[in-house]
Structures are given as structure tokens and as C-alpha cells.
Amino acid sequence: MTNRAEMTRRDIMKSGAAAATVTLAPGVTLMAFGGTAAEAAGRADAGKRWGLLIDASKCSPDCNDCVTACKTENGWGKDIESDHISPEQAPEWIRKVTLRDKTTGRTTSAPVMCQHCEEPPCVDVCPTGASMKRADGIVLVDKHICIGCRYCMMACPYKARSFVHEAITDQPEQNPRGKGTVESCNLCAPRIDSGRIPACVEACEKAGHSAILFGDLKDPDSPISKALKQYPNAALREDLELNPGVRYTNL
Amino acid sequence: MAMEQTIYRELKATPGVWQMAVLLLAFLAAAAGAWFYMEHHGHAVTGMDNQIVWGLPHVFAIFLIVAASGALNVASIASVFGQTAYKPMARFSSLLAITLLVGGLAIVVLDLGRADRLIVAMTTYNFSSIFAWNVLLYNGFIAVVAVYLVMQMMRRLDYKWVRLAGLFAFLWRLALTTGTGSIFGWLVARPGYDAAILAPLFIVMSFSFGLAVFILVTLALFKLNGRPFGDQLLMRMGRLLGIFAAAVLYFTTVQHLTNLYAAEHGAVERFVLLEGGIYTVLFWGVQVVLGGLIPIALVFLNPSRSSTILASVLVVIGGFAQLYVIIIGGQAYPLEIFPGYEVLEGWHEGVVNPYTPSIWELMLGLGGVALALFAAGLGAKVLRVLPTNLSDANLAAKT
């Protein structure tokens, strides 16, 4: 089976799938806003693997800016949404956790989002292939073919995914969400595709913490690769050997 | 062969049959209403959430799917294992297997966030997903068993072909239940699942639940039409049910002993066996005692017509409890994302997730049961699948 996420840009161009506008009849044009999954895959560069390195020692327990920025960027967690549903039903793309070491008592805090595994269980279990991994390592949900079975949520070891429990209005153009489908952090793929950094990373920098380092894990000269080489770091649930693209240090 | 003289007749439309049909249609209407309500408002109106992502509808659905493959056992015992006493019931066993599966699948499909995209699930497959395989296994089961049923009804067909079809259907049902158990068994993330034994456990559960459902549905239809069903035959099936119920207890014991031996699973075992509240009560009280030990005692220590019926009812109740503990309990128990740390702040981290099913979920689940029963009754009404006489005297004369 050809994995759509593994199609190269050339394949897309050859197949003509990159055309975002389709002429149905003279004067009638169908426009695809936000791009199709094939287009998104076309933008993804197989030569890169995007990742995050989170330095818990730089993360302030009182700061929530990464979460707020994600909400604004991706249009989840508005007050009107949380009014109708229980807190357990509310979406959660990124969350802050505060942890206390059971033996030493040291407390740390860090954000947790989709860990963008190299071997994502959510992609394995998805019956339709809606849960997918792009060529550049970003794991996301193709909301056009998600049937809302929630098996990916059962499979995710990080509780990174949430289900849209009710109809949503007033959505951001770059990130349409849909009632009855599953969603999660997509590492701000639309921003990355236009050469920007994820919203949470930007917000953390603005807040003066710079606790989240974003970059290409495949490039040995990228700051993230150098930092990973230099300091001890860990992945959450390392025992599962999923090789997440999100790594933690000083946790 | 004398057995070939069994007379199969359609169910007669007695007032009792009509009343039952109306009752089941009422449940179907209620389920349709519940579904429209959930579809319109989204899953916000259910008790399910981002922690308990599969709820009561899935307990009903998986019970029906597991029972479906088990209901086929009666036919398998007749045509694969050559027990002639079971042969007159083989046709209805095949029919009931199909309708139970349809009822279960209807629930799963109607619970989807985007039920309107069912066509996507039928046309787009990710073959590394056990769910995708199950779509094929379930649809294939319906086709295979339908062919098997038709072959059984073709009197002029050489019986060796029926035996062959029966063997194929039997192997298919083993694959199907393996697939159902593996939905949970292959989930490495959750300590409540992630166990290879879940696949064989689901197979023995299907033997037990399916036979219990078959006994109850068949007896009900026989009673509605005043057809005799012999005590000896019923008690013989009861003894088999007792053996199956004991097998479920055995596999359950091995499942928990294996977990208890591994230190990493100690906490989840403590949750289910000791401190899980509703889940602990359901496990010991309903699954083990009410749905396991008591039915076994009834059929072996006090065999009678009524004790067999009671044992069947208890096995069904115990089966629901067992699936509730596995499916809901497995999600209620928290994921261990930060081993060695205590979570002071987070998103429902490290706490037992509460779940209260809504009335809509219950109505949808009961609707699936009603659909399975209505379709089975309708099938028996239009097809010659039920024998006219299963009295012991009649059976003895033939064998």
C-alpha cells in the first residue's frame, strides 16, 4: 500500500493532485481551502524530522502561555465550548503538568502534547488511515476520513488526543475542527509548512523561558540535535520504544 | 438417515409473537430516537468523554459480537463435531449468529462520531489496524454463515458439503473472536489491556455467552409457538454451558494470576480485584459468583429445566459485567505516563476516571439487542429454520 504521507512532491505534481482548484464546468470552480491531505503530504519534507526538546528546568509552573497560544492558533478551548460540555469532554491539545519526584520530592513542570512518535500506535490502529504520519514525522489526523471511532485515543499512551464532542462555530481557517472527529497537536503543521515555528514554541520564547526547542532531528547541525547530543534527555514512556519526536530534559 | 426427517416450519404469528414484535419495535424506536439525539448534539450528551472514550454502547456491542460467534457453536457441534442431537437446532443457530452480529455492529456504527462516513470505513483500509481486519472478518462472517445456512436448508445437497461449510464457518468464527479480543489485547498503552490472553479469553467467553443466548432465545420462540423442547436436551445443553462457564473462569484466573506475578501490573490488579469500587463489585459479585460459580453449581448440582434457564440468564448477566470491567474498567484505570512521579497538576492524570452512562447510551445498546432479537424472530418467521418438535421422545426416536 502506498502511504500517502510518503509520496514525494514529484509524485504529487505528476498525479496533478496538487491543483487546489478544480474546474467542474465553465464558470464553476471548486476550491479546496486549507489544502488536501495529499497536498499537505506534498509539503512535508522526508529529509527532515521535526521534533521538540522541552527543558523542564526552564519551564515555569505558573506560566501557561504555550497552552494559551495553542488555543488561539488552533481554535480550541474557548469559553463557549467549555460551557456546554464537561471538563472531561473538553479538548486538550497541549497541557501543563506539574510533577513531584516520589523519592526526592523535587517538583518540575512541563507541557505535554502529541509526542509525534516514530512508531505511533494511533496510526497503527486507525482503521481508515485518517491517523497518519507525514514524511517529516508529524503525526496528525486527516479530518476528512476520520470516522470518529476513537480507537486512536484508546491506543495513545500519552492521552494526547481528544474527541470533538459537539458542534463548533467560528473556527480558524488554518485549522478546521469537526464535531465527531478526533484531534490532537499537529506541531502547527500549517505554520511549519510556511516556514514558521509552532505557536507554543514562539509563546514560550516570548514569555522569556525558551523552554521548548524546535528543530530538525535529522539535521546533525540543528540546535536541537546538538542539544540532544550534549545533555541527557528522556522520552515519556521510553519502555514502549515508540521513539517520540518530543524529548524532555531536566524532568 | 432418520435425522433428516426433522420438520422445520416457519414461526406462526400467534398473539404472543405479535406482542413480542411490538415490544422489540418499541425498543428499536427508542434507540433510533436516542441516536438522532446523540447525532444532533454530539457525544457531549453522553457519559463518554476524552478519558472514557468507549462506554456502555461498546459493552453492549461487544457482548453481541462475542455472543454472535458463540451462537454458531450449536451448528458447529452438529456439523463439525457430529453431535446429531444438535443438528435440528443448527439452522437457527446460524441465523441467530448473523443477527446478533448485525445488532452489535449496528451499535458500533451508530456510536461513531461520523456514522455518515461508514462508507469510508468500508472502502479505505489501513491493514495494520485490527479494526480494519475486523471490518473484513465481520462482513465475511455474515457472508460465510449465510452460505452455510443456505446449504443446511438445501435438503438434496450431500451432507459432506454442509460439513465443509460448517468447518469453514467454525474456523472463521475463531478468527473473528480472536480479532475482537485483540482490539484490546494489542493495546500496549493501557495496563488494563495489553495481554495476549484476551484473544483466547474472548473465544471461551463467546462459547459461554453465545450458548446462553441461544438457549434463551430458542426456548422463548418455542414457547411462543407452543413447540416442545425436551428437558433432557435442555439439561444436556446446560451441562455444556457449565463447562464453558468454567472455562471462562479458568482463563480469567490465568489472566489475573499472570498479571499479579508481574510487579508492573500489581497496581492495576489491585484496582480490579480490591479497590476498584464498582469494578471490583462487578468482577467478584457479578462476573465470578453470579455469572460463573452459581450457574456452574446450578447445572451440575441441581440439573433441571428451570435451573438451566436460570443459569443461562446468569451467564448473560455475568457476561455483561465481565465486559464492563474489561472495557470501562480498563479505561477508568489511569495511564502511567510519568512513572516515579506524583502528578500535582495535569489533565486527569493518575486518577481513576469516573463514568456514568447516560440514558441515551443505554437506549442505543438495548436497541442493538432488540435489533438482533427482532431480526432473529423475523428470520424464524419467514424461513424454515426452527424445528417443530424437540421433545426428548422425538429426538430419541430419531437417534
3D architecture notes:
The complex is a heterodimer of chains A (251) and B (399). In chain A, strands 10-3-11 form a three-stranded mixed beta sheet. In chain A, strands 1-2 form a two-stranded antiparallel ribbon. In chain A, helix 1 crosses helix 2 and helix 3 packs across helix 8. Chain A is α+β, with helices and mostly antiparallel strands and 251 residues long. Chain A has helices at 9-15, 37-43, 65-74, 79-84, 121-125, 151-155, 189-193, 199-206, 223-230, and strands at residues 21-25, 28-31, 50-55, 94-101, 107-113, 131-133, 139-141, 162-163, 182-183, 212-216, 246-249. The longest helix of chain A has 10 residues, at 65-74. Chain B has 14 helices and one strand; from the N terminus they run ααααααααααααβαα. Chain B has helices spanning 15-41, 56-71, 73-79, 90-111, 118-123, 130-153, 159-185, 198-224, 231-261, 266-275, 278-301, 305-332, 359-382, 392-398, and one strand spanning 341-345. In chain B, helix 2 packs antiparallel against helix 4 (90-111), helix 4 (90-111) packs antiparallel against helix 6 and helix 11 (278-301) packs antiparallel against helix 12. Classes of the chains: A alpha+beta (251), B mainly alpha (399). Chains A and B meet through strand 4, strand 5, helix 5, helix 6 and strand 8 of A and helix 5, helix 6 and strand 1 of B. Strand 4 of chain A pairs antiparallel with strand 1 of chain B.
